[in-house]
């Protein structure tokens, strides 16, 4: 995971509340077997509408999404976070996130910054009157800056620390690789191993067919 | 300090204690993999240039998407074929043992682990699949995980976790003939509700549980997740050791003795404190069936379909109304009058050899009701071979049932085995959600014995009903005492 200290990029005002994960990425895209390449799936149902914010050239390269309250509710699909990241978003700003979405974001290095609703309103106004305005998200200072609006945001200490160190869960765990090895050295010999594979005598399995 | 079974297994796997609210880091003994929830995890490894830490503690099988007929032909559905092909590529690239379609050890991941002797007491077992709780029947701490966690286990063989709460479910007494483990667990879920187990590990104990075979215990633990629980567990005993001995991966010689000595310590201490307790008497149980669209909406077979107007709680009434509308049932009608179109016998809940034997016992020498189709899908290729060696396949075919290859099949209809819209099934699987077995399909969860009797009579039935019909009496030990 890349270290996140501060990020500056075009802000995208998404004036909607209760954007659930089905809207972020519809279920049909969950059949894919890849972890990347979900940018086309982001907000798929809305992308057909020329008025939709991401279809306006000034916002098309946005990387900071400024959304209404209760962002990321509904299904726990991690694909919602993958789609936002693949599109190019580095941070989502909202006054309230669904817990699972926020958890998934933290795991994947997408910053979910909680900002007071009044401040969101001020940022929206700037972004709407001057499309293409950049927003700076400073994780160190916990501030979102958009033109003359400077708003504080909340993020829990543990997630902040992980993002700033660029540590995903796996990276964090691997810092304790020595302890894992030490534990492994103490495991009893009866504990099973899948390799080398042991079988009953192998047999050929023929295709069964339905009657009639 | 006194501890519960779950706490003992947990404590034996802590690599590193979390402090200040950080989670414990838990070692994982056995990681089961299937084609649906693993592709993105492997892709994640590739993107971050990581490897699988312990391929020798990992095993994969193809189950959810596999067809149950014509397994020698390419898989027709493209998405299914891609998922399976992806698993094959990943297994080859990362050096993971895979049991593919056509292999004698292919089958539903939760049937394959125990039958190979890989599932043992005192292990931590995970899989990107909620019914991983099945393996708790051996006294293992076994639970389902999400795709990010699958990747985490592949890369580190550990998981950061906060401890679960514990709930004791004590089932006293003796089951009456014609009632089974499936009836116990359906009754438990109806009692505590589909959310009642949330955050808990359920430990099943008591006389009725001790009396169950390993396969029946797996049926119970399998459905713990339907009560919302993280896991279900049963303390290992002689039945467990007996089942394991001689299995391909079971320890041998001195290692076996060492293992049994340790396994024998795996039980909740007498003065252990559970966060919650539930007590049931097995002697009160009748065959149980579901009438609604979640596994908690179940009743004894002799009951009637609930009348929503009589339900006081408003939210519950609305839920019941919606369920009955979807299920197209008349409030107040006897459950026994419900006619089904399909009987499905299989899944990780009831697709093991004992289940097939129980069904064969009831249907032997009979013919199914003309109005319905009967699908018998063994949980694994090994179960199928065993059944064929015992001649069960002939019994099913003579009965008019379809005898299929192993897989998840109509449990979730990811392969072509689905209900048509409006079709109704009696199913030995574990979920009766809307559309679970096919869009618009209606599912009644039942035990294998009820499935067999239903296949004969065409309507939801118990084996006792067969005797009342005066038809050839079923085996005497199935009759009510
Ligand atoms: S049989 Fe059903 S419940 Fe079991 S693993 Fe397969 S799909 Fe899941």
What does this structure look like?
The complex is a heterodimer of chains A (212) and B (481). Chain A is an alpha/beta fold. Chain A has one domain (6-165): Alpha-Beta Barrel (Aconitase, domain 4). Chain A has 8 helices and 7 strands; from the N terminus they run βααβαβαβαβββααα. Chain A has helices at 21-24, 44-47, 79-87, 99-108, 117-129, 157-165, 169-174, 177-185, and strands at 6-14, 64-67, 91-94, 111-115, 134-138, 143-146, 149-154. Chain A has a 7-stranded mixed barrel. Chain A is globular. Chain B is of the alpha/beta class. The model of chain B is unreliable at 473-481 (pLDDT under 50). In chain B, the strands form 5 sheets. A 5-stranded parallel beta sheet of chain B has the order 5-4-3-6-7, sandwiched between helices. In chain B, a hairpin with a 7-residue loop joins strand 1 (14-16) and strand 2 (24-27). In chain B, helix 13 (353-363) packs parallel to helix 16 (448-457). Chain B has 17 helices and 19 strands. At the A-B interface, helix 4, helix 7 and helix 8 of A face helix 2, helix 3, helix 5, helix 10 and helix 14 of B. Bound molecules: iron/sulfur cluster. Iron/sulfur cluster binds next to helix 12 of chain B. Residues 63-64, 108, 110, 129, 131, 347-348, 408, 411-412, 429-430 of chain B line the site of iron/sulfur cluster (SF4). Chain B: This is 3-isopropylmalate dehydratase large subunit. Chain B: Its cofactor is [4Fe-4S] cluster. Chain B: Pathway: Amino-acid biosynthesis; L-leucine biosynthesis; L-leucine from 3-methyl-2-oxobutanoate: step 2/4. Chain B: Keywords: 4Fe-4S, Amino-acid biosynthesis, Branched-chain amino acid biosynthesis, Iron, Iron-sulfur, Leucine biosynthesis, Lyase, Metal-binding.
